Amino acid sequence: MLDSRSGPACNPDRSEKGKDSSLVNSWTSGGNRRVLLLTLSFGSGHVRAAQAVAQQISVVAPDARTLVVDALDECRALFRALYVWPYWTMIRRAPALWNGLFAMRRRTQTKLSATAPAVLFEWGCAHVFRTIESFAPDVIVAAEVAACEMAALARRRNLTRARIVAVITDHETEPAWVKDEVDIYAVADERVGEQLSSWGAPPAAIHVTGIPTDMQRGTNIAAARARYGIADDRPVILLMGGGMGPTHMDRVAAALCAAGEPLHLIAVAGRDRRIERALARIEPRSPTTLHRLGWTDDVPALMQLAALLVSKPGGLTLAEAANCALPAVLYDPIPGPEERNARRYAAFGAALLAQDAREAAALALRLARDRRERRRMSARMKLLASPEAARHIAQLALEAVSSARSGGRI
Question: 50 with 37: CB under 8 angstroms?
Fold first, then answer.
C-alpha cells in the first residue's frame, strides 16, 4: 500500500548533506589508492552524487583514500561573481535567458566548448589545482561539468596523470563534458550516452550507470512517524524544492493547506531562506497539517513515509524517488536538464508535470484522493530505479586505477 501507513520500499539516503558533512574535505581510512571526487555545489545534487560515490568506494575498497572537494569552497570571491552568481540570477530572474544560453552551448557541438575560459578556472579555483597536485590522485571522479573541465585542465597542465571519470547527474547533457582527457563517462541513461557520442566521446568509454544516490538501510519508520506526529492513515505529501530552489513551493503549500483535505504536508525548504520564511506564514486549514523543515538529513525517512512527492525535478531527487518507487508531481524545472528530467519521468507514467504551482497543488490533491493511481505510478517509478548506480561508478573508478597502474586501457 502507498499511503502514510505503508510507504514505498526505499533504501537510498536522500539526505541533503551540506558542505559541513563528514565526507566533504575529509579522509577515509588509509591505503595506497587515491580517489579525488571533485564537484561544485550548484544546489546540493552534485555534492550528494560525489558523496554517494565516495561512500561506495569506502565499502568496495576500504583501503582506498578518498577526498571529496567542492570547488566553490575557498574559491575567489570574483570567481563566484563571474561564474556562480550569474547562473543563480538567470534562473531566478531570467530563466529564458539561461535556457537560451544552455541551448547555445549544446549547439556548439565541439570538444573545444567550455562553460568558462580555462584561465578563470585556474585563477578562480587555484586551490583545486593545488589539491590535485598535492593529493596526487590515481583517479578523479568529476560530478559536475565545471569539475570535469578543471580535472581535464589539470591533466593538460601535467599536474596529474590521474584517470578521469565524468559523472553526469541529469538526463540531458552538453558538449563541454566531452574532453580528450576523460577516460570514462558514467551517464544516467542511453540517450545521454548518445548525445556524448555525437559530440565525439568514444562509445567504449560511455557506461550507463544511472544517477548515483547515497544508500541508507535500516531507517526506523515508526520513529520517523512519531517524530513528525503522524499517528493516523492520512496520506503524507512531501514538498521539496532542491537544496537552494528556486521554486514556488510556498504557493503549492498554501493551496494544499487551504483545501482542508485530510493530509499531512511536510515541506523541506533546504537552504532557500525565502521559501522558509514564506512557509512560516502559512496556516493550514484543519484537518490538514503542515510540518516545515529547513535543511535536513532526514529525507530518506520522509520519502518512505510519503505517499506522494511534489518537487522541482532535480536529477538526484528523481533518482532517489525512483529508488523509493515514490510517484511525483513535478513543477518549476530549471530550463535545460531539469525540463528533460521532468519530461522523461512524465512520459514514463511515473510522474505528472504541472505548468505552475497552482496546477501542481491541484494534481497533488487529485492523486492524494486516488490510491489506485498512485500505486500505478509507483510501479512505473520503480522501473526507473538504479539503486546500484553509486556502487557501479565506484567500481569503474577503482578499475580505472588498476588499469592505469598496469599500463592498460579502460
Answer: yes
- Give dist(CA 36, CA 164) in Å, integer: 10
pLDDT of residue 11: 45
Please say if the pLDDT value at position 69 is more than 70. Answer: yes
Instruction: Please name the residue that has the C-alpha cell 578521469.
Output: 164
CB 330 within 8 A of CB 249: no
Q: Is 223 exposed, middle or buried (0-12, 13-18, 19+ CB in 10 A)?
A: exposed
Tell me if the bond preceding 117 is cis, omega within 30° of 0: no
Q: Which of 194, 83, 181, 77 is nearest to 139 (CA)?
A: 181
**Segment 126-172, tens digit of pLDDT:** 999 999 999 999 999 999 999 999 999 999 999 999 999 999 999 99
- Confirm if 292 and 268 have CB atoms less than 8 A apart: no
